[in-house]
Amino acid sequence: MVTGCWARKGILFLLFGMSFLLGMAQDTDSLQFVKTVWKKERLGAGVRLYTRQFTNKELFASNQFIAYAVVKNRGGRKRFHIAAEKKLLKPVSVFAKEEGAIVAVNGNFFNTKDGGSVDYVKTDGRLVSKNLVGAHEKLSAHQQSAVAIQKGKLFVVTGNDKPDWPEDIAATSVLANGPLLTLDAVDRVMDRSAFSQNRHPRTAVGVTKKGKVILLVADGRHANAAGLSLNELQKIMRWLNCSSAINFDGGGSSTLWTRKRGVVNHPTDNKKWDHEGERAVANVLYYSK
Asked: What start-end ranges are recorded for coiled-coil regions in this protein (predicted)?
């Protein structure tokens, strides 16, 4: 009886110790992210860019390059927009320059061979594409939530299991995407798929508690940037005070462009650590007049 009691105490102590160490690691990552010195740049009235190269495996025990823009979300003269093509694929920089954007990121998932989005897209009241589903009529995770824009102001919404659910959103522009990371300050549980758990370049959009919009890209697939799992991306968006956040298409598509600097991150399609490896995409989210 005594031996069994001590064994149980030993197991409890070990579990407590592991939990404590895990909590310490998470606290270390959050402090590292929030307290680190970020390179800051003004892109225009109400728009700021932040970039940071994390070296020596100092974030999530890995090297990372993170870039994000903080944008006032007021509507008015300067506002959020979606630019999209039905079939033609173009780099984010081309979309952005054509639209006179101040800052832009890649949009939702698309057919890399035939062009066009596989998710719902509506721009200024014009339907560009619907949620494409197979014979089973089951939506993918990137079709179950969206960013929507009404009078130039962006917000994050969740949907249901019907392919045409975005039609019910009271907004002139809608870009289905996902999976949803956080909504109304409640984190969503990420699934155990390789897409979620493995590290990849990521793009995410969030709305902070004060109503500002975060456009974020994390690089990956390189010694300088391991990329993020969706759980790690979720944590970062929370550390940036986002009450709602959503994952966008990532991998080789992940691109953050600004009028002032061009491509800010290091897109991976050319397999080089430079700013030239953009992938042509079906649509972008951008901010401008």
From this structure: none
Average pLDDT over residues 165-188: 97
Pair of tokens at residue 133: 């589903």
- pTM exceeds cut of 0.85: yes
Q: Residue 220: what pLDDT? A: 98
Q: Residue 52: count other Cβ atoms within 10 Å of its Cβ.
A: 17
Pick the closest to residue 162 from 192, 130, 126 (CA basis). 130
Percent of the chain's residues with pLDDT above 90: 85
Distances (CA, A) of 90 to 110, 200, 261, 274: 12, 22, 19, 19
Give the per-residue pLDDT at 134.
81
Structure confidence at residue 2 (pLDDT): 45
**Reduced 3-state DSSP string for the chain:** CHHHHHHHHHHHHHHHHHHHHHHHHHHHHHHHHHHCCCEEEEEECCEEEEEEEEEEEEECCEEEEEEEEEECCCCCCCEEEEEECCCCCECHHHHHHHHCCCEEEECCCECCCCCCECCCEEECCEEEECCCCCCCCCCCHHHCEEEEEECCEEEEEECCCCCCHHHHCCCCEEEEECCEEEECCEECCCCCCHHHHCCECEEEEEEECCCCEEEEEECCCECCECCECHHHHHHHHHHCCEEEEEECCCHHHCCEEECCCEECCCCCCCCCCCCCCCCCECEEEEEEC
d(CA 201, CA 195): 11
